[in-house]
Amino acid sequence: MFIDELSLFNFRNISKQTFHFENKINIIFGKNGQGKTSILESIFFFSITKSFRTNAEKTVLQHEKEYFDISGKFKANNSNMLNVRIYFSQAEGKNIFLNNNKLKKYSELIGVFPAILLSLEDLELIIGDPRNRRRFMDILLSQVNPLYLQHLQKYKKTLQQRNKVLSLINTGECNRSALEPWDDRLVTYGIEIIKARVILSDYLNSKLSGFYQMISKTNDTISVRFKSNVTDAKGNLNKNQYFEKLFKTVDSDIIRQRTQTGPHRDDLEFLKNEFLIKAYGSQGENKTLLIALKFCESHYLKEKLKEDPLILMDDIFGELDIYRINNLLNYLPSIGQTFITTTLKNKFENSGLKNPGYIQIDRGAVLQ
Ligand SMILES: Nc1ncnc2c1ncn2[C@@H]1O[C@H](COP(=O)(O)OP(=O)(O)O)[C@@H](O)[C@H]1O
Ligand SMILES: [Mg+2]
User: Fold this and answer.
1) Which of 2, 8, 30, 101 is deepest in the core (most CB within 10 A)?
2) Is the pLDDT of residue 283 over 90?
3) Is 116 exposed, middle or buried (0-12, 13-18, 19+ CB in 10 A)?
């Protein structure tokens, strides 16, 4: 997938601007606070139908404006042209158009414009709490499998309902049998979610070392462990066992008014040579792992969707040594169309990159 043209209207500090991009590498440079990240944010918007910086559309709407309107002209690997437009107004909310047809559900767009994003905030994925890693798995799996997204949404709803019932039991307003229908649904959807995540973590496990070694030029092996409080010690999963585990914690669930068993507590662990990276990794190793993980993500999307994802890299090069930067830059064009934001244009001018496009951003506009 390639984006040829992007038009932004009232998006963050960008009032009105059209951008044209190169098929391979685009370097978006400029001082801090000029709108570089906002450009990536808008491209990624088409991928996940929302911002990666906020869940509230209002926050990306330019201050004191009524609406924002962003559109992209894309070319798929099979040369089909696709255009997408997202319009948001305070009064109407968000409307999404694909080839000028208004979508009934936002989820119809998921997987159409695959993209991966790399920013330093993403380090939370490596060192932050498990929620980050579940979100990573969920976004990735939803993009390649709409059914996963459905199961996930149903699971979350069921979980909320079950927790409500737990509260009612806690206060004596209903009895335990009220849990039964919710438990059935919880297990039905939960098992589908875990199954998909197990397969994904096997995939990551098979690929991660290779990417890590390519970027760091070390022989370190990286492994991935999927953690679930539903599977058994060998990682096996079946319905009866899931029910058993759910029953085991039901007393304390009622006291806490919260369900403790299930995929909403899943996690991924990354190990370097058998040691937990979260506990022992250096900053440079964490960053290398993050990039390797994103490369796995892009390969996964490419394999499953038969489409090259866009690669968005937000200001990550300032933090890496020149050695790792060059390893990365040599590899990037083989993955897909790439967008790199930076305050340091000369780092790239001296890197031997072949024909990158340069776009300079100044106060929300392209500087000609
Ligand atoms: N809703 C908004 N309306 C107007 N300006 C905004 C809005 N949100 C953020 N900004 C401003 O947009 C500018 C560009 O932000 P950003 O894209 O993160 O810059 P860069 O990545 O170039 O450092 C910042 O100065 C920020 O304060
Ligand atoms: Mg930025």
Assistant:
1) 8
2) no
3) buried
Please state the φ and ψ torsions of residue 124, each to the nearest 5 degrees.
Answer: -55, -30
pLDDT of residue 355: 81
Sheet containing 2-11: give its strands across.
14-20, 2-11, 67-75, 81-89, 93-98, 101-102
One of 3.40.50.300, 3.30.450.40, 1.10.3210.10, 3.40.190.10 is the CATH number of 1-114+308-368, namely 3.40.50.300
In angstroms, rounded to a whole number, what is the distance separating the alpha carbons of residues 38 and 59? 12
Cα distance between residue 263 and residue 32, in whole Å: 40
In 171-263, alpha helices (H): 180-216, 239-248, 250-256
Q: Which residues line ligand 1 (CB under 6 A)?
A: 12-13, 30, 32-38, 60-63
Task: Name the pTM for this structure.
Answer: 0.88
Contact 133, 289 (CB under 8 A): no
Residues 6+ apart with CB under 8 A from 201: 137, 224, 225, 226, 268
Query: 338-342 and 25-29 as β-strands: parallel, antiparallel, unpaired?
Result: parallel
Q: What is the pLDDT at residue 319? A: 65
Distances (CA, A) of 129 to 125, 132, 360: 8, 6, 36
58 CA to centre of ligand 1 in angstroms: 13
| Distance of CA 21 from the midpoint of ligand 2 (Å) | 19
Residue nearest to atom 26 of ligand 1 (CA): 33
Q: Domain spanning 122-306: which superfamily?
A: RecF/RecN/SMC, N-terminal domain (1.20.1050.90)
Parse the chain into domains and list their residue ranges: 1-114+308-368, 122-306
Q: Are strands 310-314 and 115-119 parallel, antiparallel or unpaired?
A: parallel
CA of 283 from ligand 1 middle (Å) equals 27
Question: Can you give the pLDDT at residue 232?
Answer: 81
